[in-house]
């Protein structure tokens, strides 16, 4: 579903070039739930931007659903984003003077393939799934942090994305809301079969995923989960479930 | 020199090359420039008029009548004058004159003057002593007449029934006070004792008799006028003070200047809106900085001082540049008098205008920072760690209370400015009210339109992206209130200026768009009618309209006598409304209405009707009469009365013999009358031939070739047009700054939105589409609000300030709409172009 091949990325500073990503490679299968962890400044956000087509690498290629996107124009990548990719931000990033149902329906409106009634129905259904059916006409300023993030999740899933990126989705939430969000993502990941890639600091969040990658010095490497290590030590032949509920 | 930290901070903040500083400075420049430019020009013009007035009249005071003063009246005048006063007489009238040899003719304003004229100023001639030695059979001519008639000194000029010897040219002489068409005719001067022989001294020839008085030193002419005005007006003698000379022209000039003041103030007001937006934008960008200062222990005053100093520096720069612009502007204001009588108005800036300009250029912006200062005071240091959204929401809540105080204070300031400019309380109240309450009313209309937009969006009348955008911008918090109020106010003022421009042109009688006749004949005696009619046939004249003209005074309304002392004291206020009851009338009678006339009330008469009256509808209102009322006129001592059976709308610009009061056939047919005729002859050479034949056969007849007059009228029209265009450019420039500063205020939100649209898959085409729709919606909301308000404001300004009829040019409104749409769309697309090229990731991650 997502493939990154020999990705290099650096930024220009007054002191010279600052390398961020160094020969990064990643292969993600369809339906996987992956977490990317790493210290501050390790290049997680840069990686996410390149993977989602929001930024271009200095070298290397990116493939989404078998299609190479690195050489495409911005508008072409936008089209791919509207059809195949969903995005969830740390600070929700809802459009402030659109209400919940309008924010959720925005990707479908942009695609131009759906009638207003259909957009309204689908957005309504998704808001119901995230338990916000009573708040569909509320503006972002009238919602709590958790509710805003749920709207953002609904928006991210409305176009049935094959690939979903989440950048610190629980970063601005308390632990209760954070758990709620993660369980929601997990449910949607399983029911819709989307490939989920999360960037996070929080090991508790990472533990929801089936695979944890660590970003260090611009390079991604596989990180074993705590539970996997424990189980490997105690029962090396058994597989580990990735779901954790609190 | 090493700067202190504060000075360093200030230096970094005042980056005059930043967009926000540029907008701030130039909003002040345009506003101050327009106000000081107009103010200086107006002061110069006013001083010039006052300075020249005595020399324009040639006397301190004038007793003026359309009838020859009787011996008793002259004696009465002498009785009231102080000892050592001097008096002389003049008689003025329009007449044709001709070269006896060649037969060439020319229209002239003839002035027959008595000994001693003029008491002030000079009558310059060439040869220099031509006037001093002028005999009763000699004549002085304007240079243009002597050229047109191809005269040499000593040649004979036929005036009426007599020939005069051409003695010399008039280089400079006091103004005649007849105004209107008459003011266009070149002057000629004869001695008063030479007048009788011309045979031109008769009623109906628009003759004016003046007794000019010079008063001894220390006597105020105004006192004489105040004391005796009412006494003499009863005898149809009007007393004029020297400052009232050319009052018709002065009224036009002062009306135009009042209007220009309004435009200048409007331009400044729009600049103030732009300043308000920019001040708020600047403050919003400094929120975190101010909060951090507070976290580090700085007092509120520290930040306030920095902020105010910044505003002050930018305001001083803007004011100084604005004063300079005001000076340059005057070079582009043409001398609107178009007259050689007043000294040329030279561009200048008096000290008062400079101080005034700098004061308003600094004080108003400082006043507009009041709510921002309050916001700085109450800002919590916690804002340093809050989000931008939380901070901006708090500012909005707090500053609305202070904003109300600001609005009241700004109203007071604009009221004072308007009062100083117009010196009239009511005008100042209305002008400042229009300006300050205009944006409030625009906002109210916008609020209503937003509700309509929301409903339209909800009901599904619109679909897809259009519905999405209209729904979005119709919500509270769309951030479009200030741009729409600013743009709406600007469009409103521009529309208002277009309506008033057209109305001023009508006031000057210069709407020539519907002109049909190009020749006018006046003073046709009954026995001369057949000749004129035959000549018109011979020359294939078209659109011939001939009407009888009877001079009369209104004596009674519904059998009640008219009070003569109700005439307006100041001649400049003596418009057609205020003189409706006491003026001299020119009556006429006919069987039918013109095509260009329309009945507004009642019914027009049948051919066999007797003694029915039709009154022009606005005149009827001024006169206080309606259908069913009776009017009685005094025609040379004989009463003629009739009943009003209808009021009518007259098209004054169609160049037919139009009258405010016409009779059906009846008693008026027997009154002594002259005739007036208008018609059209295509070729210029034929018109000249026609003119020559008429003047040769009947020297008493006055004949106008309108084509020549139109050239003169068009030049004045184009001057008025250019003044108004100049002021409209100021307003339009101010409006552009409002628009750009509004878009700049929203730029941060717009960047975020655009980034989000891109992230969820929108291409640049979709993004341009939504902002294009938004631009159209902004234009529509602004324009609809502004049309309604412009029409309302025009009613008040035209009726109560300028006292003129108005005409709404809807076609020009469409041009304004199209131009506004283009300008707003252009501004949006430029703004979007900068944003659209920013990669969404760059913006998003800078926020996080």
Structure description:
- Chain A is an alpha/beta fold.
- Chain A has helices at residues 44-51, 74-84, 100-111, 116-129, 145-157, 175-192, 203-206, 226-234; strands spanning 2-13, 16-28, 33-37, 59-64, 67-68, 85-88, 163-167, 195-199, 211-216, 219-223.
- Chain A has one domain (2-245): P-loop containing nucleotide triphosphate hydrolases (Rossmann fold), CATH 3.40.50.300.
- Chain A is 36% helix and 26% strand.
- In chain A, helix 3 (100-111) runs parallel beside helix 5 and helix 4 crosses helix 5.
- By secondary structure, chain B is α+β, with helices and mostly antiparallel strands.
- Helix content of chain B is 53%, strand content 16%.
- Chain B has 21 helices and 21 strands.
- In chain B, strand 2 (86-99) and strand 3 form a beta hairpin.
- In chain B, helix 2 packs across helix 7 (300-331).
- The longest helix of chain B is centred in the first third of the chain and has 49 residues, at 247-295.
- Chain B is elongated, with a radius of gyration of 33 Å.
- Classes of the chains: A alpha/beta (246), B alpha+beta (848).
- Chain A binds chain B through residues 45, 49, 54-55, 74-75, 78-83, 85, 87, 89-91, 93, 95-98, 102, 106-107, 109-112, 115-116, 139, 141, 155, 159, 167, and chain B through 387, 389, 393, 460, 463-465, 467-468, 471-472, 475-479, 749, 752-753, 756-766, 839-841, 844-845, 847-848.
The structural class of chain B is alpha+beta
Q: Which strand order do you get reading across the main beta sheet of chain B?
A: 2-3-8-5-7-6
Largest sheet of chain A: 6 strands, mixed
Molecular shape of chain A: globular
| SS-derived structural category of chain A | alpha/beta
Give the structure's gist in a few sentences.
The complex is a heterodimer of chains A (246) and B (848). With 246 residues, chain A is of the alpha/beta class.
Please write out the topology.
The complex is a heterodimer of chains A (246) and B (848).
Chain A: E1 2-13, E2 16-28, E3 33-37, H1 44-51, E4 59-64, E5 67-68, H2 74-84, E6 85-88, H3 100-111, H4 116-129, H5 145-157, E7 163-167, H6 175-192, E8 195-199, H7 203-206, E9 211-216, E10 219-223, H8 226-234
Chain B: H1 5-13, H2 19-57, E1 61-65, H3 71-80, E2 86-99, E3 105-113, E4 124-126, E5 138-142, H4 143-148, E6 156-159, E7 162-172, E8 187-191, E9 208-214, H5 221-233, E10 238-241, H6 247-295, H7 300-331, H8 351-368, H9 370-378, H10 388-422, H11 425-458, H12 464-473, H13 481-507, E11 519-524, H14 529-538, E12 542-557, E13 560-561, E14 584-589, E15 598-602, E16 612-616, H15 617-623, E17 630-635, E18 638-649, E19 661-663, E20 674-680, H16 684-697, E21 702-705, H17 706-745, H18 747-759, H19 764-801, H20 810-836, H21 840-847
Helix pairs in contact in B: 1-7, 2-6, 2-7, 2-8, 2-17, 6-7, 6-10, 6-13, 6-17, 7-8, 7-9, 9-10, 10-11, 11-12, 11-13, 11-19, 12-19, 13-17, 13-19, 13-20, 17-20, 18-20, 18-21, 19-20
